[in-house]
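Backbone-to-sequence.
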């Protein structure tokens, strides 16, 4: 071929080969990454991104007993086996796997339940941190990390500092406690605690009354969250404002539980009557509270205090409703 003239393309054929090779390699890399991504993120792939639950939580701490309560206050349910709680307090750190740690108790309607189920609305996770050497005082800041283990995401982080507080004149379930309504013998439901926080505000609970069945509402004041010392109370008054438009209720009872079972303090069968308003506009009238000091006696009983109001249905027709406008306790030391 010596002495022959070559075309322009033939004169630079080595460079063309290099360009084509580079294009082919880039194409192979892109195809490889596409196959890997398709495998990883497909239903049958090696890795599938975990869903992180959207859940609202409310934390309370009892500095006297070194316990923390985490309440499910809204959002999705979470498998208890997928929850880990991490504490940082006073220079110490501890981790608690909710389903297996003996320092953890799961409460539903105030009663312990199995750790094999779900963490649902109204449930409470109670953790005794002393079991792993974490203690704190009312002046310490406590970091709480609530972790969803499958997704490795922190659902909520809180920094709680509980300083000594002055008790208000009337302590209502809101914001620390809860209201559980069992109407007409049904399975019951959690009520927003704001419904019973004020008198004559037009915001009421609704308790369905069914003939010859008992309906009740239970109120938890969460007194352990106030960081009280070991001083026993000298006076405790209980006040409840109850409303009905007719006589669809009978045998009304007011009971308390301080950790050893329900005891009736007013209403049917006792010398202390329960006053019942027939209209919301009557709620601004004065209502005499019930003195329960002799039933509570100690600060430990005060921390456990729950109140239950109940009545029997006395109506032939359906859709009868009774309301609680206010419930509160007054405490003096």
């Amino acid at each position: 071929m010596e002495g022959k003239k070559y075309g322009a393309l033939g004169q630079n054929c080595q460079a063309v080969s290099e360009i084509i090779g580079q294009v082919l390699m880039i194409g192979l890399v892109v195809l490889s990454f596409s196959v890997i991504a398709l495998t990883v993120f497909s239903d049958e792939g090696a890795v599938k991104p975990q869903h992180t639950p959207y859940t609202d939580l409310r934390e309370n701490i009892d500095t006297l007993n070194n316990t923390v309560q985490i309440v499910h206050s809204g959002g999705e349910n979470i498998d208890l086996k997928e929850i880990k709680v991490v504490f940082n307090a006073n220079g110490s750190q501890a981790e608690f796997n909710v389903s297996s740690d003996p320092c953890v108790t799961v409460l539903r309607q105030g009663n312990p339940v199995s750790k094999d189920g779900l963490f649902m609305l109204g449930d409470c996770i109670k953790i005794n941190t002393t079991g792993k050497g974490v203690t704190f005082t009312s002046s310490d800041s406590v970091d709480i990390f609530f972790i969803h283990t499958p997704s490795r995401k922190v659902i909520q982080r809180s920094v709680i500092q509980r300083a000594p507080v002055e008790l208000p004149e009337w302590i209502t379930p809101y914001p620390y406690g809860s209201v559980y309504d069992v109407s007409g013998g049904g399975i019951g439901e959690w009520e927003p605690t704001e419904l019973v926080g004020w008198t004559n505000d037009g915001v009421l609970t609704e308790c369905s009354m069914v003939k010859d069945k008992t309906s009740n509402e239970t109120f938890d004041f969460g007194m352990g969250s106030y960081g009280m010392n070991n001083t026993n109370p000298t006076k405790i008054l209980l006040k409840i404002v109850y409303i009905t438009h007719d006589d669809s209720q009978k045998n009304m009872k007011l009971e308390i539980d301080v950790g050893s079972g329900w005891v009736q303090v007013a209403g049917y069968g006792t010398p202390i009557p329960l006053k019942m308003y027939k209209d919301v506009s009557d709620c601004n009238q004065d209502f005499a509270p019930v003195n329960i000091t002799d039933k509570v006696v100690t600060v430990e009983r005060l921390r456990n205090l729950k109140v239950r109001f109940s009545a029997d249905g006395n109506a032939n027709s359906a859709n009868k409703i009774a309301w609680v406008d206010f419930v509160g306790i007054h405490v003096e030391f």
